[in-house]
């Protein structure tokens, strides 16, 4: 929808039942109308960008972390989102945030540090230091997950997966699972497996196993690893025994093991997104932010004739081309545009044509 551009970027998403919320660099929490496919309401947080959001379903609360180190708490009501409180300010950006199972505590990740917050007081009760591989290079905690027994799992820019005791604020284990930063991680529904991936697109899983001779002592061990994507993996989520992943390559992947299954869904546009000019063998392709026209040649590579882009902030709603390839039309939310497509000295040229509207 064109309103998405107006409301800025989307840096984090969270569901509450059938309601969808997002945060972004515009410094607001936005709720969406899923029937109309557009923003429904906007709730300002602060003057700084917002990087992460998390919802606790039991307490009906939403928490958002900002660039200037604030955690904003909102109460979720049936038809609205109401501001509740502001936690103590921390030093530096909050890059990720997660609730514990009770809803009494929040966990945040930032540069070199993970903090455990008590929501009722607004104060941090534990400060967990990640350390650095190189003295002058910061470690950024990009992803968090929390189990019911308050084990905190973090993924950071070093490519390390770390396990922490949230009750005592101490490190349990650290694994160098990836060659580059971990951007996303998630727990299986039974919380016995954690999946992680990131700049290094390898999706690795670690499984919680009980130590021999003890019912209480557990250890996280590496289980499986798969390369499903070609570029950065930005998001992981599980449903049953199925893992869904997505990232920079634009594919939504559905995978499981065992049994070993992989289904990849390409980024498809809403139809109609293709038009033909059969008399001259032109192919028009419509994308959200551009329209391209190609000349098809049998036995040869196609030649791109034109690439048209709308004004900044607008998205292409529809586009078509005449059967003889001489007329090209496209529309955005604000207007309809008509062009004459001509080949001059073997070079394509778009000439804008004025459209005169007539009142009825």
From TrEMBL:
One of its GO terms (molecular function) is RNA binding. SUPFAM superfamilies: WD40 repeat-like. GO terms for biological process: maturation of SSU-rRNA from tricistronic rRNA transcript (SSU-rRNA, 5.8S rRNA, LSU-rRNA). One of its GO terms (cellular component) is small-subunit processome. It comes from the Eukaryota. It holds the Pfam family WD40. Coiled coil: none annotated. PANTHER family: U3 SMALL NUCLEOLAR RNA-ASSOCIATED PROTEIN 4 HOMOLOG. This is Putative u3 small nucleolar rna-associated protein 4 log isoform x1. It comes from Rhodnius prolixus (Triatomid bug). The lineage of its organism: Eukaryota, Metazoa, Ecdysozoa, Arthropoda, Hexapoda.
